[in-house]
Design goal:
The structure is a homodimer. By secondary structure, chain A is mostly helical. Chain A contains 17 helices and 2 strands. Chain A has a two-stranded antiparallel sheet with strand order 1-2. Chain A starts with a helix and ends with a helix.
């Protein structure tokens, strides 16, 4: 397969293949869990709807590209199942994250906890029921992710390198989520902390580790892993910085989530930390008074956006994105990765950084 | 090791060994997660406090006994880490379950979500923060459970039998939790459904699968697995039926949880289903009016206990426990399991069924 790379690196075809593996695994969930069609199969059906909804599939794509980057091999089934397990793991992370952030929508639909509440309107405490069902659905996604890895047919050599990487990736994203939880809601000028969260929750989790996992499956050496990191870390930071801008300035019709959510929750972003640091005392008082307020309205948001603009924070973040994007592309220029892989990674970088959703 | 079984089957020594493995794994959590002593190590410290609190360790104990039952072998380190992973998985299940059940205490201490809220009293929405931190702590426990399995050194033969069993065990308990969530709060006379939940959440999860996992590690044949099931399923049902009685009639000083919780949440137990089925119309109206009420008080509980008593539901459940306990013991009499293992299993059965906590 790896001798004829071009057709495999059609990103749309790769995505379709990943979705096929995901769909097939959801039709046959782990023992004890009813199939989606079963009357008792509400959880599996909800997970199927969530996982197979249109999405970027960036983590499994990067896993497959990492495998190609390290020369591929004969473990094709293994790489697809491992790649799919990352999307299933991400479903777990998103479902629990939406509960924690109090997000009511995701990808233009109701978030999982809101959807469960809406499906059981006559239950007493329907909102709490929705949260509790969503906790279980996130748990199911994590268990299904494990089941995909457990049935991926990893060789002993692959297990020895891939499983520690997986454990580390999971630890990193969880630590990032915890830092996020503890920091959110309190306006802070701690840019370093906001950047640490971005690195754990996005740069490593979304870009670097998926590439490493795929590369490790193909027996990558240290040089390939380093080349992956040199591309992944700056790109991942740029990806999160773009996300932070979209969270305040984005078009809800494109992002699929209300544009006030980040401001209402007081999310600890680099953007907000820069603005807080550079604000005049009066601007600082406005930020302290508005950011993190649950009842923040559109007029308040306009005032906050104005401060993000005139402190220069928005422009600084745009500049940081450009710098990091260029750095990621330069890392591909030294030829450490096969040119077909580098081409796909350039496309992914552009999509990650220059997007409206 | 398996040639000299007696010292290994000292249950207290087995428990100590399990705790040593758990403590060691928590000192070195998966990459990205700070150690307990680290200033950012709040999650790991909380998980350490939770997991190492005194407990029965029944699942890891049964895993080790299942291994001995199948003749043990040279995979000693593997069986300890797999056994410990079950206790870590159980921490995950308990932490999320306590959120879902709204339980404020566990083992005589604050439940995890209440403890997080209490540790951050000055945060806005401290209660919601506590729940969100507890969601992440449960997630961390599941990830740590995986890391224990991933580093257990399973041989290829062991993986092929043990990992599907693990996936199934996880699916079963999650399905039981979901059935529990959907059923709880609505008084029902559906004894079969309550028994199905007991089977998934307790009989299989707590007794049968841990024995199977240990036995599978030692390469058990079908006869040994069947002998384990013949003991495990009736015992596990008896264990849950005892739990249901303790949840209504138990001494909070011994159980470590308020005796009104099960009644207030309207937990779907066999006990309550039997009472509902056998109640007079007037008793049924009383049950419908009181069970599942959050503000149910001690006087109300006295009325419900009175109905559980005079409908004969309490006595029927005691009878069901005795029947199942005897059935479990009889399953040990046919000599399929080594006598030292059978002796330990008899002791565990007695502790599971005749307990006050």
């Amino acid at each position: 397969m790896s001798t004829d790379l071009v057709p495999q690196l059609d990103l749309r075809a790769l995505r379709d293949r990943i979705d096929t593996v995901l769909a097939e695994s959801l039709r046959r969930p782990p023992g004890g869990i009813p199939s989606p069609g079963d009357p008792a199969g509400e959880l599996t059906q909800a997970l199927t709807d969530f996982v197979l909804a249109p999405g970027k599939r960036i983590r499994p794509l990067l896993c497959v590209l990492g495998w190609h980057a390290a020369g591929g091999g004969d473990s094709e089934q293994t790489v697809w199942r491992t790649a799919a397990s990352l999307e299933m793991f991400h479903a777990f992370a998103l479902i629990h994250d939406d509960i924690i952030d109090g997000s009511s929508t995701r990808r233009g639909r109701l978030s999982v906890h809101r959807a469960f509440a809406a499906r059981h309107p006559t239950r007493p405490h329907a909102d709490a029921f929705g949260v509790h069902a969503a906790i279980l659905l996130g748990d199911l996604a994590l268990i299904c992710s494990d089941a995909l890895v457990n049935t991926a047919g990893l060789s002993t050599r692959q297990r020895d390198v891939v499983l520690p990487l997986l454990d580390t990736m999971r630890g990193e994203v969880l630590q990032g989520q915890h830092m996020d939880l503890v920091t959110t809601g309190r306006p802070t000028d701690d840019v370093d902390r906001a950047m640490s969260i971005a690195r754990l929750k996005t740069a490593k989790y979304t870009i670097e580790r998926p590439l490493h996992l795929g590369a490790a499956l193909a027996g990558a050496d240290v040089d390939v892993l380093s080349a992956c990191s040199a591309y992944a870390l700056p790109l991942g930071e740029a990806f999160q910085l773009r996300d932070d801008l979209l969270g305040v300035f984005g078009d809800p019709a494109l992002t699929g989530k209300p544009v006030l959510d980040d401001l209402r929750s007081g999310k600890a972003t680099v953007l907000m930390a820069l603005a807080t640091r550079q604000a005049t005392p009066a601007q600082r008082r406005t930020l302290d008074a508005l950011v993190g307020r649950e009842d923040l309205g559109e007029d308040d948001a306009v005032r906050v956006r104005h401060i993000l603009q005139c402190t220069g924070a928005r422009q600084t973040v745009e500049h940081m994105i450009t710098q990091r994007y260029r750095q990621a592309l330069r890392a591909l220029d030294d030829g450490a990765l096969a040119s077909s892989v580098a081409t796909a990674l350039r496309l992914i970088a552009a999509q990650a950084v220059m997007r409206g959703a």
